[in-house]
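Section 3.1: Structural characterization of target chains.
Under the original work plan, the team committed to producing a structural model for every single-chain target entering the pipeline before any wet-lab resources were allocated. The record below documents one such target. The sequence was received from the expression subgroup and is listed exactly as submitted; it comprises 145 residues.
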Amino acid sequence: MSYWTWSPSLSVGIDVIDGQHRRIIDYLNELDTVRRSNDRDKVYGVLLGMVDYTRTHFAFEEDLMRQAGYPLTEAHKRVHDAFVTHIDNYVAQHESGKDVTRKLTSELQIWLTNHIQNDDRDYARVAGKFMNKGWLSKTLSRFFG
């Protein structure tokens, strides 16, 4: 059983972004699963993978926003930066021996739901009009290829 299941209420209407959000949810589900195994090394590996993937996702979103001319790009980037700092604190706590996974998964579910349904949907209205196959394939290969 999954900790969190993707729902259409989380869609921003841009397939590639929705796919990335689904992957972050997959990481949260994986984190919850390895938490139950009490294997700190596995937890650490999933945690680092999730942080790395999320940073890449944020950079991808920010590039899309900039290129689409979204006027609140810098404000959105500051929200991303604050989130990454917050998550880095959880990584440090884990490294110091604390079990942070329950609190982290709960906070992430709340934060991501709010962020996707509000902040991301706002830029998606502008970016959705901008997207074309040339931009998408070029950007995907730059970030994920």
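The longest helix spans residues 101-130.
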